[in-house]
Each structure stands twice: as structure tokens, then as C-alpha cells.
Task: inverse folding
């Protein structure tokens, strides 16, 4: 390996000056079908030109990196990416009930990765439908809890409030609620929504404002709305609207 040209990570982004698309020229559009190929090809110049950076994965340098990761993580090993994310995780946890193998859980997990949540908690069945996660769970800490009581005691042991998300009688509007910074947000599943045990265990249950005819939105969409509300509150310092709707 040569010495690293850019140990801060930029060297792993676009070594060939191709804008992170395909520096080695090995990707492009091999099928010639106009299909956009994600990521970067092999590091140009082969092993003698590889940067001396322990975060980089020799297999990715050799073969190219086609993973769905940000450009700053190109060629990094999975372990190195997890370590970098661990250093800056946000203190919100995202929990979701999983009694019926709901296909939407993957979408919740993917958004939790995007906001760099501290952890994801699957409550109920251990096996969950990973399809919508697009392997983003690889870079997250995913825990399993057999039931809501187990999640509640895990949260209580860490002093974390358990806040449910569902539009049920007694729910508080998300738009006027000051979300705690350190928190476990618990989502229900398509169909039944939060279970009676979950509603009982939560200190507050939040409803997202709706104005149409449908009873609810998709749980993946609901999770994205609430996680973004957390980001607005605790990354951008935007206070919720006091006094309710205009
Ligand atoms: C399809 S909803 C289910 C139930 C809903 N209470 C009903 O009456 O139909 C599934 C999950 O999505 C989330 N969800 C959907 N719409 C919501 C909303 N307007 N406010 C809060 N959560 C919502 C909740 O986590 C809920 O448990």
C-alpha cells in the first residue's frame, strides 16, 4: 500500500475523479442498457496504489464497492463504518412491534439508519422482514425483545422514556409535543397498530396530524415523520408549536 493521500476519508470517495461513480472504469454500464451502476470500481493502479488506511477493505479496493453507502465510506470495511457511526449516534432508539412479520419494518429500520439512531428494537417475533431494510441493518445495532414488558424494562433500566406512536383515543399531537432527546419511540404494525400492552407501557402516545379520509398512514411513513421531528427538535433546535393547530 502507498501512504494515504487523504486519511480523512476523501481518498476513498473518488480516487479517479469520476464523482464517486466508477473510478476504475470497471462499472459504468456493462450491460449497455442505460442502467445506472451505483458505487465505484476497483481502486485504480491496483494494490501498489492502495492507501495505507486500516479502515479500507482490501476486497473492496480490489473488486470495487457497489454498496449503498455514502461516498465518505467508499471502500471502508463494514466494521469501520459501524465504528464511525457509533462515534456520532443520536440518542433516540426506535422500537417496532413485530407480531405478524410486517413487511414495513424494513422501511423503519432504513430510516433509523439514515438518522443514525442509537438502536433499533424488534419486539415480538425475533425474525423480522428485512426486505425493505436494504441491508441498512448491517450498520445498526438491532436488539430483540420477546414482548413489550421486556422492552419497557430495558428502557427503564437506562432511564429512557418509552413514547408510543399511534393515533388512538388519548393520543397527544406530535406537532405540539416536546420530544425527549433520549427516548425510545415505539411503533405498531400495519393493521392492529400498537398492542394493548404497548399502549399501557408508554408514558405518552403521539398522533401525527392527518386531514384526509384514511384512518392512518403506513407505519414506515409514520416512523419517518416522527424521526424527522426528532431531528428538527434536537439537531436543528426547532421547538414544537405551542398551543395546538392554528
Ligand atoms: C396502520 S397504523 C394502525 C392503526 C391505527 N391506529 C388505525 O386506527 O388504523 C400502523 C402503525 O403506523 C403508525 N401510524 C400510522 N398512522 C399514524 C398516525 N396518524 N399517527 C401516529 N402513528 C401512526 C403507528 O405506529 C401505528 O401503530
Result:
Amino acid at each position: 500500500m502507498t501512504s494515504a493521500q487523504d486519511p480523512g476519508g476523501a481518498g476513498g470517495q473518488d480516487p479517479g475523479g469520476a464523482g464517486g461513480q466508477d473510478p476504475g472504469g470497471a462499472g459504468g454500464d456493462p450491460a449497455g442498457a442505460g442502467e445506472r451502476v451505483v458505487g465505484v470500481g476497483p481502486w485504480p493502479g491496483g494494490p501498489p496504489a492502495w492507501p495505507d488506511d486500516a479502515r479500507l477493505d482490501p476486497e473492496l479496493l480490489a473488486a470495487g464497492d457497489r454498496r449503498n453507502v455514502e461516498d465518505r465510506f467508499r471502500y471502508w470495511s463494514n466494521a469501520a463504518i459501524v465504528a464511525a457511526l457509533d462515534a456520532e449516534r443520536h440518542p433516540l432508539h426506535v422500537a417496532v412491534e413485530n407480531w405478524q412479520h410486517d413487511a414495513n419494518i424494513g422501511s423503519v429500520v432504513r430510516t433509523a439508519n439514515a438518522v443514525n439512531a442509537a438502536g433499533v428494537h424488534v419486539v415480538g417475533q425475533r425474525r423480522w422482514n428485512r426486505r425493505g431494510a436494504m441491508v441498512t441493518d448491517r450498520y445498526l445495532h438491532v436488539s430483540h425483545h420477546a414482548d413489550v414488558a421486556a422492552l419497557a424494562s430495558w428502557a427503564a433500566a437506562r432511564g429512557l422514556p418509552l413514547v408510543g406512536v399511534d393515533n388512538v383515543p388519548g393520543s397527544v399531537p406530535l406537532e405540539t409535543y416536546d420530544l425527549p432527546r433520549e427516548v425510545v419511540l415505539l411503533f405498531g404494525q400495519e393493521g392492529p397498530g400498537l398492542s394493548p400492552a404497548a399502549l399501557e407501557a408508554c408514558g405518552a402516545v403521539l398522533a401525527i396530524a392527518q386531514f384526509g379520509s384514511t384512518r392512518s398512514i403506513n407505519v414506515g411513513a409514520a416512523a419517518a415523520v416522527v424521526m424527522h421531528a426528532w431531528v428538527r427538535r434536537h439537531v436543528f433546535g426547532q421547538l414544537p408549536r405551542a398551543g395546538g393547530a392554528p
